[in-house]
Amino acid sequence: MSDPAPRISILIPNYNNGLASSIHGKTDLIADLLQSIHDTLGNDPTPLEVIAYDDGSTDDSLDTLRAWAKKTWRDNQPFLKLIEAKHTGVLSIGANRLVRESSGDILVRLDGDTVMLTPNWAALLCETFDRGHPKLGVVGPKQLRLDGKVHAFGDWLLHPKGYHHIYAGEERQAVDHALEVDHVMGCFYCCKRAVYDEVGGYDENILRGQTVDFGLAARLRGWSCFAIPHIEYTHRHGLRGARKTTADTDDGVAQTLDTFRTKWGFDRIAPDLDVVRERYKGTPLLWNAQVFGTPPPGPIPVSTGDPQRAIEQSDWARYGRDPAYKAGTDLRAAVALQVMSQIKQSKSDKPKKLALLGCRSGLIAHLLAGESLSCTGIDTDPNLISLAKQFVASQTYPTSPPGFIHQSDPRRVPLEDGSTDIALIYDQVEAHDNPVALIRDTHRLLAEDGLIVILTKRPEHTRDPYEANRRYKAQELVIQLQGVGGWNILTDPRQGNPDHPLIIIARKLPLSITKKRQDPTPAEAA
To answer: Which of 75, 253, 291, 420 has a CA 20 to 30 Å removed from the CA of 23?
Structure first.
C-alpha cells in the first residue's frame, strides 16, 4: 500500500545555516531545525513531506542536509528530499523551486535558523485551515525571541507607523488569541497552495521580503491572513553570522525597496496611507477598518459653547493645577530651548523661526515666546486656535507674541516652503492617521538645514493590538524617519531618559542626496 499523498509540504530554503556560519561557531542552526521537526512531528498523524533546497552553501550546512536526507522516520519514509543548486542569493528562486517540487495542499516555508516548539503542529495547522473561513489563505504562528518573549505575532504593514511587528517584547503567555494581520513573517510562512497558484508564486525580482509582496498580492485577491497563538517557534537569526549575499548588502536592500515601490506605488517601510487609500480604494487591500475606515468629519470642539468651561478645561488651567502635567509641559519647552541654544547664530543672522505643530491652546508656544523665541502654533482644531489667541492677547512678551494658524487641510501645514527653521512635533505622531504625510510635509516647510524635533509618548501595555502599536518604540521611530527619507538623524532616542518621552532630532537634507524616490501624492495616485 502506497503512502498517502502529503497534506503539508515543509519547504526549507538554505544558505549557510551551519555550525561554521553561526556566531562563534557554537550553534548548528540547520541541524537544530531538522531535529526540532523530527521531534515535534514524529507522532503527528498528518501526511507530510520535507523538502530542502540548498542555494550553493559553502559551510557545513550542506553536509548536514545530505546526512538528514539519508535518514528515515514515520513508517520508514525518507526524512527529507534535498535539492542542491548553484548559488544565486535570490531566496524567491529557491522558494519557487521548492513549491514546484512539492505536492501538499498546505505549503509551510521554514527558514534554516528556526526551531519548532509545539508538538504535532502540522495537525494543528491543518485544523486551523479546515475550521477557518474558506478565504483564509495565509497563517503565521507565534514567533519567539531567544529569551522566550514574543518577537512578532504577525506584522502591520499599512498602519500609521508603517511596517512593524505586533506584540514585540510581550510575554509569551500574554498573546493567546488569533489575530487578523497584514502579514506574517516569512521565516514560518504557511499558505494554501491555491493562494500560491493564484498569486503566481514569489516575485524573483525582490531579493528580500518576498512574503511581504506575496501577502499583499494575496490580500488584493481577497485572501485573509491570521497570526495564531497555539503554534510556537523560535527564530534564531541573531545567532547566525553575516552572509555574503547581494540581497543583504545596502545596494541589495535599496534595490528591493525600489522594486517594491515601483510595483505597489508606496513605500514598504513607511507607506503614505493617503496614497494607499486612493490607489487601492474599493479593493480588499484596505481590509483594516481601524486604518481605512471612514475618518471623523472634523475636529471635536473643545467646548459646547461655554467659554468659561473651555478655559477651565484648557492646557493653561491644567498647567496651574497638575504638577505632573506642568513638569511634562516644561520638559517640552526645555527641549525646544536646548535645540535653539545649540544652533550657532552670527550677529547678522535673522531670528530663527519655530513652528509648533499641534499647538492645542497655545501654552507651549506662549512659554517659548516668553523666552524671546519666534514661534507659530498650528492646530487642526479651530476652537483651540481661537482659545490660544484669546489667552495670549492678555500676555506680555519680551519681543513678539506667538502667532497661531488654523490648519484646515490635515495633509498640508499652512506654512510656505522653506519658511521655518525648526519644526516641533510634540505628541502628534502617535495619534496622527498618517505620520508619513506629516513628516514629509514638515520637510517641505523647513528651510535648508532646518531641524525637525519629534517628541512622542512611550508605549503602554494594552490588550488592543492596534492601539498597542500606535505609540512608537525608539527603533520604530528611527526606521520610519529613515523610510520617509530626506533626514540626517542627529540623536538616538534609545539613549534618552526612560522616564521621559522619546525624542528624536533630525536635520533636513535635500531629497536628491538621500536618493529616496518619494511616493506619489494622493492626486497622482488617483
So the answer is: 253
